[in-house]
Design brief:
Ribosomal Protein S5, domain 2; 18 strands; single chain; PNPase/RNase_PH_dom_sf; 350 residues; ExoRNase_PH_dom1; six-stranded antiparallel sheet; alpha+beta
């Protein structure tokens, strides 16, 4: 999977949400299933004739998709980082014509107690009305809630971001990280693009070092050092998403908008890399699941329909294989950026 494109750009069911609290992949025995929070995934509908749908489905079953890709091929992927000067970190991601803008902001807050503070990323997704006519008015709110809920669940553990504890500055002060995602254009497979963009934006995020000084009455004051130094998050365990979709009997990844209209059911999987020395990081409300050299932090079946256990297991294995390739390619490209003497000036309007 080639992510190199140009400059520092990169190319690479049952309606239930499964918050995985130990699950055995080999037997697929789900110990805990939580119902969705009152909303369901809504496909970005495209007007297709029956003949067009038959052409797309039969082509996928023969291993040749309408745009010439094989079942597990991605469309060209472009990723740019540092595109917004007003954020602590930012990225823009394009998969085919799907276009997302991601910004990370760090806000210094006062809290009553560390014991009750939820030290997690806070996701907000906005679906621009320009992305598709279905988003005009409040049409994109349901889809935005779906994406933000999936991202929130995937990051809701202590494993994926070990530097979260560094955000606690004092018993009453902390950095709160907000991740804002704007969907500029929709051409299918938004969840994969969002996962790639969040990881790239977190890699670009810089947080200021501060000096904590005790004050009167058990309070604390926060000051900036004279040299204004910054530190970056460890993103080596950040998960990526992959959506494995079923068209007829075929299983494919990276659906186009036309293919989404023909999809019977999809499985969203978020997978984080696992390292040999990783122990004691899994205390969370949704415990990750270890599998081979990776950890599943989120899995959900979307759309309608049902899946046999064999089909579900096959789709999970496809997702694990594909997301591993995405991790390797994206990590290589983000490392290459560190060796660049100077990034080309760019904005999200380019």
């Amino acid at each position: 999977m080639d992510l190199g494109r140009c400059g520092y750009s990169t190319s690479v069911g049952i309606n239930l949400m499964v918050y995985i609290t130990p699950i055995t992949i080999e037997t697929l025995q789900f110990d805990k299933v939580q119902e969705p929070c009152g909303y369901h995934y809504k496909k970005m509908e495209v007007r297709l004739s029956d003949a067009e749908k038959v052409f797309i489905i039969h082509g996928a079953q023969e291993g040749l998709r309408a745009d010439g890709r094989s079942p597990f091929d991605y469309r060209p992927i472009t990723i740019q980082t540092g595109v917004l000067a007003t954020t602590n970190g930012s990225a823009r991601v394009r998969i085919g014509s799907t276009d997302l803008l991601i910004g990370v902001k760090a806000e210094l807050i006062n809290m009553e107690s560390v014991a009750v503070y939820r030290n997690r990323l806070n996701f907000f997704v906005d679906c621009s009305a320009n992305a598709t006519p279905l988003f005009v008015g409040r049409g994109g709110e349901e889809f935005a809630d779906e994406l933000s809920a999936a991202l929130d669940a995937a990051y809701d553990n202590n494993y994926v971001l070990p530097d979260l504890k560094k955000l606690i500055l004092s018993p009453t002060h902390a950095w709160k990280l907000f991740v804002d995602i704007v969907l500029l254009q929709c051409d299918g497979n938004v969840i994969d693009a969002a996962g790639l963009g969040v990881k790239a934006a977190l890699k670009d995020t810089e947080i200021s070092e501060v000096i904590v000084r005790p004050a009167d009455e058990g309070k604390y004051t926060i000051d900036l050092p004279d040299d204004n130094t910054v530190w970056k998050l460890d993103i080596s365990r950040v998960p990526l998403f992959v959506s494995v979709n079923r068209l007829g009997t075929a299983k494919i990844v990276d659906n186009s908008l036309a293919e989404e209209a023909c999809t019977r059911t999809s499985v969203w999987i978020a997978v984080a890399p696992q390292f040999v020395s990783d122990t004691g990081h899994n205390k969370s409300s949704q415990s990750p699941v270890k599998h081979d050299n990776c950890i599943i932090t989120f899995m959900r079946q979307c759309d309608g329909g049902t899946l046999e256990i064999d089909s579900l297991e096959e789709m999970i294995n496809i997702g694990l294989k594909v997301v591993g390739q995405l991790h390797e390619a994206l990590d290589r490209r983000l490392i290459d950026e560190n060796w660049m003497a100077e990034k080309p000036l760019s904005t999200f309007l380019q």
